[in-house]
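Aggregate trends can hide what the representation actually does to any particular protein. The sequence in question and its structure tokens are set out directly beneath this paragraph.
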Amino acid sequence: MLSSLERRIDEIQRLLTYLIDEAANGIPILVEGLNDKLCLEEIGVKGKFLFAKTSGKSILDVLKEVETCNKEVILLLDFDKRGREMTYRLIENLQSYHIKANIIFWKNISSIVGREVKDIEGLSTYIQTLKRKLEKHKAKY
């Protein structure tokens, strides 16, 4: 039987494998900033990244950038209040441009990490912490 730690690690790794595949297939990933991109690349996610909060971009600038890339974008904004608000605002606006806003990863990762991780850039540290906790737990038993 898998422990709670093992289940969380397995779920995150499954999601990240799927995210890696989607990014490799050309689906762009919209993150808030460069640190989020660097964290995802550290985890193994390679592909086209778009930024929602760099250089004073307006939401219209972001929408135009997404529109030139694809008819689908993966939204991976932070899990805090501002990130949630921006995600839902982008979903509404992307629909008017007939662009699919994929929030599957955002919702699932958010549900796994709960309040322990507030932003995407903290994800790799969170995964490393879970793995260390699991190793300590296994060493005890």
